Amino acid sequence: MIEPRLELLGESHLAGIAALVDDAEMLRFTRVPEPVPNGFAAWWLRRYEEGRRAGSREGFAVVDAADGSFLGLALMASYDREARTAELGYAVVPAARGRGVATAALRRLSDWALDELGAERLELFISPANEASKRVAERCGYTLEGVLRSRYFKQGRREDTELWSRLPGDLE
Questions:
Q1: From CA 61, how far away is CA 89, in angstroms rounded?
Q2: Average pLDDT, the chain
Q3: 160 near 149, Cβ under 8 Å?
Q4: Are 20 and 29 in contact (CB under 8 A)?
Q5: How far is Cα 113 from Cα 135, in angstroms, rounded to an integer?
């Protein structure tokens, strides 16, 4: 069994990020451009570091607590301080999928956003075709609110997106 932990995203995770964004499933269900531009991992890391300083975004690497190996990402893609609403996301390397890593990572990320930030609403945007991600959301106490038609736009394609949310008292 893998026991994942979150650590602040940093330069030591660049190789893991680069490998993750090279995965077809990651590309299929995320906003990462295809083909992935050269230097994308470093650009993405800088973006999250800038967001950390501004208080509008945060990135965590998901690592194996036993050996520190990179397992994926747990991200707060955006945070509206006034509304206290955070958009979260997660991605796991292929070798760690189906082993509870994404569920553990989203639980930790959600707890962090609720407890540390004082968020009052957490949101996930999930492709209707991403059954695995929807199961993770359900296990972590998120509720499907509905489908946002034609919301997701990536390189000339439009797709529907499901909106999942969690409020502070949902698991009580």
A1: 12
A2: 95
A3: yes
A4: no
A5: 20
Q: How far is Cα 166 from Cα 126, in angstroms, rounded to an integer?
A: 14
> 122 with 88: CB under 8 angstroms?
yes
- Give the CA diameter of the chain: 45
pTM of the model: 0.95
CB 171 within 8 A of CB 141: yes
Residue 1 has pLDDT above 80, yes or no: no
Please check whether residue 143 is in contact with residue 165, taking contact to mean a CB–CB distance below 8 angstroms.
Answer: yes
Superfamily of domain 4-120: Gcn5-related N-acetyltransferase (GNAT) (3.40.630.30)
Look at residue 23 in the predicted model and tell me its pLDDT. Answer: 93
Match 């991992």 to its residue by tokens: 41
List the domain boundaries for the chain: 4-120
- In degrees rounded to 5, what are phi and psi of residue 98? 75, 15
**Are β-strands 70-80 and 58-64 bridged in parallel, bridged antiparallel, or unpaired?**
antiparallel
The predicted pLDDT at position 15 comes to 96
- Asked if 91 and 72 touch (Cβ cutoff 8 Å), the reply is yes
CB 96 within 8 Å of CB 71:
yes
Q: Of 14, 89, 74, 87, which Cα lies nearest the Cα of 44?
A: 14
Residue count of the chain, please give it: 172
Indicate if the pLDDT at residue 3 is higher than 80: yes
